[in-house]
Amino acid sequence: MGKKGVLLVNLGTPDSPEVSDVKKYLDEFLMDERVIDVNAFSRTLLVKGVIVPFRSPKTAKLYKEIWDENGSPLLYYSKIQAALLQEELGDDYHVELAMRYQTPSIASALENMKAGLVESIQVIPMFPQYASASTGSVIQKVMEIVGKWQTIPPVSFVNSFHDNELMIGAFADNARKYHPETYDQILFSFHGLPERQLKKCDHSGQHCLKADNCCNTLTDVNKFCYSAQCHDTARLIAERLNIPADQYSVCFQSRLGKDPWVQPYTSEVLKELAAKGKKKLLVFCPAFVADCLETLYEVTVEYGEDFKKLGGEEVQLVSSLNEHPQWIAALVKMVKDQHSV
């Protein structure tokens, strides 16, 4: 029997923090029709005419702030995760790592699997909560590539794992070293999305953004909603740590453009908490399984500085999952559960 293939796919990172490489990364990322979901002509004008030329130098400076002797933190931790998963799964499995944008590419990882004569391919997009712009894009890309093969092996996908008990446990374990009970408020800051993308995932057409708290509880109607899954992840981590509902907030960061995005915005929540006299904040970023620009710079540096200007004292980031043993165990269980079906 051949080996079982496992493909881990994270979002991506520039090959270096130089402006030229950041341009290449942003161009590929933002030209994805699932990321900026407008018509091709408008997307091309916006991305190639406005965002990439003006944003690349600024973004390159930010990447230089987090780049270290290991290179990109996202790629560094992703490689460790793939290696540890391979070690745990053993010789019956062939684990590959890919990035949706830039290197290592999904196409090259799949070619390695084909050359390795795998008997099946399981794809795990490394995004706990489903979004068309992340998980959906990975699934579409894999299907486009494998769909052109003459012989297509069995291919399966992990759609989301926002409520995975081992993952929840790993986030909670990372938080305990900071003693959450000593902070004035706990923030669960997730990556943002345009509201229109949430509405597109509402197959009923009757639920999304029809009420102020439509995402607060996961139901059959909103089970594929990114925001609803985010709220569920936050609730489960808070319950694991015995954090009362009034002591934590769910918010969304990384807004781009002027269209309304999922709310509340993290930047606005910081203002509200500072106005209430809150001084110390502990921040989770459970949309990310590895530390990256959004955690190491946006939260730690930008939000930390902003909160102090508002009168606060401390913004402490809870480390991402990185190489946490419980997170590796969660990946192993995802793989084994799929192959036991």
Provide key terms for this protein:
341 residues, alpha/beta, Rossmann fold, 2 domains, four-stranded parallel sheet, 11 helices, 46% helix, globular
C-alpha Rg (nearest Å): 20 Å
Q: Give the oligomeric state of the chains in this entry, treating copies of one chain as homo and distinct chains as hetero.
A: single chain
Using the alpha-carbon principal axes, give the shape: globular
Protein structure class: alpha/beta
Average predicted confidence as pLDDT: 95
Please report which band the strand proportion falls in: under 5%, 5-15%, 15-25%, 25-35%, 35-45% or over 45%.
5-15%
Give, in order, the helices and strands: EHHHEHEHEHEHHEHEHEH
Number of individual domains: 2
Strand order of the largest sheet: 2-1-3-4
Q: How many H/I helical runs?
A: 11
- Ends distance: 18 Å
CATH fold-level label of the largest domain: Rossmann fold
Helix content: 40-55%
CATH class category name of the largest domain = Alpha Beta
Got a strand count? 8
List low-pLDDT spans. none
Name given to the CATH architecture of the largest domain: 3-Layer(aba) Sandwich
Please summarize the sheet with the most strands: 4 strands, parallel
